Amino acid sequence: MMVLITYDVSTSSSGGQKRLRKVAKECVNFGQRVQKSVFECLLEPAQFANLKNRLEKIIDQEQDSIRIYYLGNNWKRRVDHIGLKESYDPEGTLLL
């Protein structure tokens, strides 16, 4: 399933800056950054549960927020891109 993960981590303290880096690192491990605090992740249900659990442990729920949008398996019809950076297809061919 495709999920879109967005986050807002308070960086007014050094602890917040550390949390921000950890959240970004976890998201990079599971998906593709499409904007500064927005990731598209194509995940199996177990992978998603693992990522969600990791993120919940990192953030301070009094100061930070994470929003998860479930796009499902038929996500390609639900994503439109306009502008500079061309979107990618996580199910497409990977060239190295």
Walk me through what this model shows.
With 96 residues, the protein is an alpha+beta fold. Helix content is 32%, strand content 25%. The chain has helices at residues 14-30, 45-58; strands at residues 2-8, 32-35, 38-42, 65-72. The chain has a four-stranded antiparallel sheet with strand order 2-3-1-4, covered by helices on one side. Strand 2 (32-35) and strand 3 form a beta hairpin. The longest helix has 17 residues, at 14-30. 16% of the residues are buried. The mean pLDDT is 87.
Key features?
4-stranded antiparallel β-sheet; alpha+beta; 96 residues
Q: Helical residue percent?
A: 25-40%
Strand content: 25-35%
Number of strand segments: 4
Uncertain runs are: none
Order of helices and strands: EHEEHE
Please identify the structural class as seen in this structure: alpha+beta
Give the helix/strand layout.
Elements: E1 2-8, H1 14-30, E2 32-35, E3 38-42, H2 45-58, E4 65-72
Antiparallel strand pairs: 1-3, 1-4, 2-3
Helix pairs in contact: 1-2
How do you describe this structure in short?
This protein is 32% helix and 25% strand. The protein has 2 helices and 4 strands; from the N terminus they run βαββαβ.
